[in-house]
Structures are given as C-alpha cells and as structure tokens.
Design goal:
Layout (H helix, E strand, L loop, with lengths): L2 H15 L12 H10 L5 H14 L3 H6 L2 H8 L5 H19 L7 H5 L6 H10 L10 H9 L8 H11 L5 H15 L13 H4 L2 H8 L9
Helix pairs in contact: 1-11, 2-8, 5-6, 9-10
Length: 223
C-alpha cells in the first residue's frame, strides 16, 4: 500500500468515526480561541476549559485583558503549566492587538506569529478554526500518530506538517487535524498501546513498528 492509498483509508476511517469534530477548547470568538490555544501549551484542554470561564468573565476581549495586571491574570490561570510566562504573554499579546490591529485578531500567519506566545501551531489553529483558512496544525500527538501510521518520517513537527499537507487534500486539513487529535485520545495513547488492537495502527503500522512498540508493553500484555 502506498502512502497516498494509506492516507485515503485513514481519512475515510476518521470521517466515519468523527464526521463533525468539535473544537475541544471553549471559546466564543477568535480572541477567546487565541487565548485558549495559547493557554493549552503543555496543559490538557480539560484544564484550560476549567480556567477560561473565569478569565473571560474578567477579560472578555483584548482591551479588557490589556488593563488587567499580570499578577491577576496569573492568579486566574495559576493551575496551568507555564502559568507565569503565559500570564505575561496574554497581557502583552492583548496590548499589541490594540496597538497594531485595533483590538482584533489578525487574519494572517505572519501577523499572528509576531505576537508574544503565538507560535506556528497556535497560529494554524486560529487560522483554521476561527477563520476557516486551510491549515494543518501539528502537535506532538499528531506527530506521533503520523509516524506510527507510516505517513511521515519527520524528526520534528515542521517536517510532519509538510508530509501530511502533501498527502491529504487541502480542503480536508482543518477537519483532519481535529479528527486525528480525537482518535489519539480515544484509541491511540502514547504509552501502553497495543498496536495490533488499534483500529488504524493494526493495518497502517509496519510490522517493525508494531514489534518495537510491543516490546515496550508489560510482558502480561504482549501477544
């Protein structure tokens, strides 16, 4: 099976499992999505969704967030990983939105990535999910699954993103990003995963890959 054939079969299975995947981060507009994605680094979406309602009540937009002191932002997000850095970035990002973009979230990768705390993955999520622009945000989970399925041999997320964009049609990228994330959470965990029982790994992974990951399982779980 070629990579292209494998990609088509993967996409078909994911569409059947997740025909309309929701965005897992609570938000109401591009600004709240940008904030939520910035907060999600090294933190689960569940944790972010527990924190953002109070944060958005205090600062629902860039103008309000720019007026809040960093220490107060930190107090509202303290339970998240990297909270001190995120608090500083949220305030400065909001200030720059006011200075450069009249308080609105810009609709370009370059302008988004010029904001503090906004990397390429965060910009890709905002462009795809807030503005409907084709993008393929690749986090460590998607990077891991693409390698397991033999769709990318990339040594970093940038390489994996390029590989996936070549394999999948442009108009499927936004949904596929979410579908792969949900599949990874529900069927394909990073550790203790028996690839032979996975709906996709069982046929997409190479025998070598299956053997390598089986060797990491406790002896009681090995086939």
């Amino acid at each position: 099976m070629t990579k292209s054939e494998k990609a088509r079969r993967v996409a078909q299975q994911l569409r059947e499992l997740y025909p309309s995947p929701p965005i897992p981060l609570l938000h109401s507009d591009p600004y709240s999505l940008l904030v939520a994605v910035m907060l999600s680094a090294q933190t689960t979406d569940v944790k972010v969704n527990q924190v953002t309602p109070a944060l958005f009540r205090r600062a629902p937009g860039a103008e309000a967030m720019a007026r809040v002191e960093v220490d107060e932002i930190l107090a509202l997000i303290r339970q998240l990983g990297l909270a001190p850095t995120k608090a500083k970035n949220l305030k400065r990002m909001s200030e720059l939105l006011l200075e450069r973009h009249a308080g609105e979230v810009p609709r370009s990768f370059d302008e988004l990535e010029a904001l503090p705390g906004v990397g390429h993955k965060t910009a890709s999520v905002v462009m795809s999910q807030a503005f409907g622009e084709p993008a393929f945000p690749v986090d460590t989970h998607i990077h891991r699954l693409a390698a397991r399925w033999g769709l990318s041999s990339g040594k970093n997320v940038e390489h994996t993103e390029r590989d996936l964009k070549r394999l999948f049609p442009r108009d499927t990228w936004n949904a596929l990003h979410l579908q792969i994330i949900y599949f990874g959470r529900e069927h394909c965990p990073a550790r203790g995963h028996d690839l032979t029982h996975c709906p996709i790994c069982s046929w997409a992974a190479t025998k070598k890959r299956i053997a390598e990951e089986a060797a990491k399982l406790p002896k009681s779980r090995r086939c």
